[in-house]
């Protein structure tokens, strides 16, 4: 028995469906008025919560390439305690965390009017897909090295 199975290689048709869903969700997020940096921040924060080194490295690099600052990335794990993030970004990060952790009772700290209903929906789908990617990478033991 092996330690890990690369589930994307084992079932490539499902992996391709995940890729297609990811593309549709990203397009919907942009159409809802969410900027590319915010989308990367959400992906990074979800990956931090899930402990996915592969996705953290990939989306941190993507965020830096899109102009994100190292200061904001450094404080992202404690975003609520910093003054680096706008109300919209804070609401988006809170919603992404709730969709990732599914805490009970439901915490709706993000529902402060900073996000439209279209943005709320797009961010929830973004979190659903990113959580899926994290689980694919973690369960497949994607290599992450220098």
Automatic annotation (TrEMBL):
A UniProt-annotated Pfam family: CMD
Origin superkingdom: Bacteria
UniProt domain Carboxymuconolactone decarboxylase-like: residue ranges: 12-97
Xref: PANTHER family: 4-CARBOXYMUCONOLACTONE DECARBOXYLASE FAMILY PROTEIN (AFU_ORTHOLOGUE AFUA_6G11590), CARBOXYMUCONOLACTONE DECARBOXYLASE-LIKE DOMAIN-CONTAINING PROTEIN
Name this protein carries in UniProt: Carboxymuconolactone decarboxylase family protein
């Amino acid at each position: 028995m092996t330690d890990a199975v690369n589930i994307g290689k084992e079932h490539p048709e499902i992996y391709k469906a995940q890729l297609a869903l990811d593309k549709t969700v990203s397009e919907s997020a942009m159409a809802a008025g969410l900027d590319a940096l915010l989308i990367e921040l959400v992906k990074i924060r979800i990956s931090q919560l899930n402990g996915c080194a592969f996705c953290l490295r990939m989306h941190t690099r993507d965020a830096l390439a899109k102009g994100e600052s190292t200061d904001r990335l450094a404080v992202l794990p404690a975003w609520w305690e910093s003054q680096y993030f706008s109300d919209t970004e804070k609401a988006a990060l809170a919603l992404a965390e709730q969709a990732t952790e599914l805490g009970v009772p439901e915490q709706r700290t993000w529902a402060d009017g900073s996000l439209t209903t279209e943005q709320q929906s797009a961010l929830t789908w973004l979190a659903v897909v990113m959580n899926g990617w994290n689980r694919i990478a973690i369960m497949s033991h994607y290599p992450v090295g220098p």
